[in-house]
Design a protein that fits this description.
With 179 residues, the protein is of the alpha+beta class. 20% of the residues lie in helices and 33% in strands. The longest helix has 32 residues, at 2-33.
């Protein structure tokens, strides 16, 4: 009877270990290829993202589609690819971007930015033409953002993924507004 009980315990332990290994492999695959969490260390995307927010980023979004104006994306910083930034897509390849009198202009036409706080005033910039394979990125907190006005255009190959939701702190849980 003791031998049978030991075999049963061994079988149960084996099943538990197998389940844990499978769960770990699935978790790693999801994190590497599908979703990844990120921490927001600065206020450059306020009011959309606040310092200390934790977000989920979809790594599949741009494998099946392309970035669109207004998307909030996470990417490797062009001047130091070891660092990760989060900004909003403003200009797409081939477009001319300008900031004038605290308004955004794409190809000479004013573009609405409902995600910006009312009354935000920021310096003029441009016009600049976005080269092929690149994006023009800005933080929502335009007066406190290290973005394309400082470091130039973002190469699309540096994109990690699209920010889709805030998951921490609990009172800020929500889907991220892109347009």
């Amino acid at each position: 009877m003791a031998v049978a009980a030991n075999r049963e315990r061994g079988a149960i332990l084996g099943e538990v270990l197998e389940s844990l290994v499978i769960a770990l492999v699935i978790a790693v695959i999801i994190r590497v290829f599908v979703f990844e969490p990120f921490y927001i260390p600065s206020g450059s995307m306020e009011p959309t993202l606040l310092k200390g927010d934790r977000i989920i980023v979809s790594k599949l979004s741009y494998r099946v589609g392309t970035p669109k104006r207004g998307d909030v994306i996470v990417f490797r910083y062009p001047r130091d690819p070891g660092r990760v930034f989060v900004k909003r897509v403003i200009g797409l390849p081939g477009e001319t971007v300008a900031l004038k009198d605290s308004h955004l202009y794409i190809n000479g036409r004013q573009v609405s930015e409902p995600y910006l706080p009312d009354g935000l005033s920021f310096a003029d910039f441009g016009p600049v033409r976005v080269p092929a394979g690149h994006l023009f990125m800005l933080g929502d907190n335009r007066n406190s953002s290290d973005d394309s006005r400082v470091w130039g255009f973002l190469e699309e190959r540096l994109i990690i993924g699209k920010a889709v939701a805030i998951y921490w702190p609990p009172e800020r849980i929500r889907v991220i507004r892109h347009r």
